[in-house]
Structure formats: structure tokens, C-alpha cells
Amino acid sequence: LKTHLLTAIEASAALDALEAVRVEALGKQGRVTQLLKTMGAMSPEERQANGPAIHGLREAVTNAIAARKAVLEQISLDAQLAGEALDMTLPVDVPAPGTVHPVSQVMDELAEIFADLGFAVATGPEIEDDWHNFGALNIPETHPARAMQDTFYIAQPEDSADAPMVLRTHTSPVQIRTMVEVARRHAGAGAPIRIIAPGRVYRSDWDATHTPMFHQVEGLVIDKGITLAHLKWTLETFLRAFFERDDVVLRLRPSYFPFTEPSAEVDVGFSIEKGKRVIGGDEGWMEVLGSGMVHPRVIAACGLDPAEWQGFAFGCGIDRLAMLKYGIDDLRPVFEADVRWLKHYGFAA
Ligand code: PHE
């Protein structure tokens, strides 16, 4: 019996088979249990003769079951762990890492170039009031820039007497905010200003070279004795640093902006290299920005004395700069968030 039971215990391949053997041996009706029960009817001599063997059998079977149980449990645990283990050789879906957008890249480059020239970065709200976007900039009520087809107006109650808020149509309102703040801080006495203001601007326009949202960088210098020569030197230094070429030449063309007097549109010279236009040289001219000496009326509107303070300002399309520097030929994908496009023109994050 002992051999039979021990063999059965060793042979049980799973915990439920082992449990069946335990019931067969040690259960209420089990064969070892039955043997133990027969001892009650034995004479003391018989009990002395058979007792040790029967108890020994029970102990051997109990120990064997416990030992086998431990082994089976270990096997089942190993199997479970093996099933749950990670297969490190499987291919994984790695989310595509982002890249720096060319427009962000250019904004960073601008901030760096102008920081070297002593300019701070200023910001303003994208939802502007009429006064900051137009009025203080000497843009008359009748100016075409205010017309519905160019400016996005924010809806307001019909009975409102206030001029509607607008999505700023240029970064020039940051000029106003900066000068007003300086006038306030110095109680009208003023102080030199050197800022650039990069950011989003909005106009109701949509084709290969116009998107309803685009980016500009504004520049503003206010000080004593500032002239057009300072403007030209600053723009030249900036564009040479930006395009990383010493042969970048500028051409200032007389122009008109309500908030500058005189005003100049600035063209940058390009040449043809391997059939492509590259900035540098003077085989042709491309318009890159608007600029001028800040109109005395604008300085006065901000609470500064135009007899004491003069300055220049410029406004430049950032997307345009990015396209020229990085050879992008359609503006629209610049804002379409297509990862393939970003990969092509993006910069390592
Ligand atoms: N705000 C003008 C524009 O959006 C650009 C500009 C800025 C011109 C500053 C002169 C001075 O076209």
C-alpha cells in the first residue's frame, strides 16, 4: 500500500490529481484512515506490533503529499511567471517624437540675435482693443486695414457703444503697450526702449502665400537722437546674422504706414544658386519687412514727449523668414501639423 500511495503521489502531475490521492489515502474513507480505525479493535499486543507501521505509513504519506504539493506549486508559479514575462525582442510601437517647428526655431533664433543687440522680448494679447491695434497707431477710422475683409472682429452685443475687440492684425499694438507701460512707470519722463515682439497675428486671407493666422516680429527702439541710420544698421546686422551671410544687402524703399514717418519697405537682395533663390548678393530683390521712424503722434498717444524721444520700428513676417531660410515653398503646410512635413523641415527636439 505504501509503495502504491508513494508512487501515485510522485506521479501526480497537477494539484488536483495530488488532492485525489490525498483523499484516497487520508480522506474520511481513505485507505490509511481505514487502517488507523482498525487499531481500535486490536488487542494491545496487536496494536503494539502493527501501530508503528500504520502511524509510519500515515506520516510517510502526509510528508510525501506536502513535498509533492510544494513542487507542484512551484511548477505552476513558474508557468505563470513565464506566461507573464515581457518578450523584450518583440517590436514596439514607439510614439513618434516631436520636433521643433521651423516657426518656433526662427522665433528662438530672432530672440537670440536681438538679445545680442540688447533687445528684450515683449508680448501682448492676441485679442486687442481698437485703440491698441488701430487708434493709438494713428490708423484713421477710414483706413482700409480696418475694413471687414481684413480684420477679424469679435462679436459683441448689438447695443454696445464700444468699438469691437479684434484679433490683432499685426504685432504693432505691442509697441503701444510697451511705450504706455514705460510712460506709466516713469511718470511720463520716459526711458530708452529696445524690444522685439514675436507672435501670432490674424487677417482674413487664404491662399498659397496667405493664411488667416501668421506670425510677425515687431521691433521697437525708443531713445534720444535715434535716426534712420540706426534702423538700417540694426536691420542689416539682424538679417546678416539670421541668414548667416555677410553679403546680405538691403534696399529701403519709401513707403507709407500711418504709424511711421518716414516709412520704408525693406527689400533684401537674393541671388540664384543652383536654380534656387538664396538670400545674399543683389541679382534680385525681395520684400521682407516694413519699417520707419515712429510717428510723433504715436509717441505722444502713449504719453511720451516726442520732442524728447524718437525711435524706429519694424514689422517682419516670421513665416516668410522661415520659408526663405529653410527653403519651404508653400506657406499653408507650415500650419497643417502634418508629422511627415514636420519631420522633413523640423529640427531635432
Ligand atoms: N505693422 C506693419 C504691418 O503689419 C509693419 C510695420 C511695423 C511697419 C512697424 C512699420 C513699422 O504691415
TrEMBL record:
GO annotation terms (biological process): phenylalanyl-tRNA aminoacylation
Keywords: Aminoacyl-tRNA synthetase, ATP-binding, Cytoplasm, Ligase, Magnesium, Metal-binding, Nucleotide-binding, Protein biosynthesis
Annotated Gene Ontology cellular component terms: cytoplasm
Chief location category: cytoplasm
UniProt-listed Enzyme Commission number(s): 6.1.1.20
Catalytic activity: tRNA(Phe) + L-phenylalanine + ATP = L-phenylalanyl-tRNA(Phe) + AMP + diphosphate + H(+)
Listed GO MF terms: ATP binding; magnesium ion binding; phenylalanine-tRNA ligase activity; tRNA binding
Boundaries of every Aminoacyl-transfer RNA synthetases class-II family profile domain copy: 104-333
Cofactor annotation comment: Binds 2 magnesium ions per tetramer.
Cofactor(s) annotated in UniProt: Mg(2+)
SUPFAM superfamilies hit by this protein: Class II aaRS and biotin synthetases, tRNA-binding arm
A Pfam cross-reference name: Phe_tRNA-synt_N
Family the entry assigns: Belongs to the class-II aminoacyl-tRNA synthetase family. Phe-tRNA synthetase alpha subunit type 1 subfamily.
NCBIfam families xref list: pheS (TIGR00468)
Subunit structure: Tetramer of two alpha and two beta subunits.
Protein name stated in the entry: Phenylalanine--tRNA ligase alpha subunit
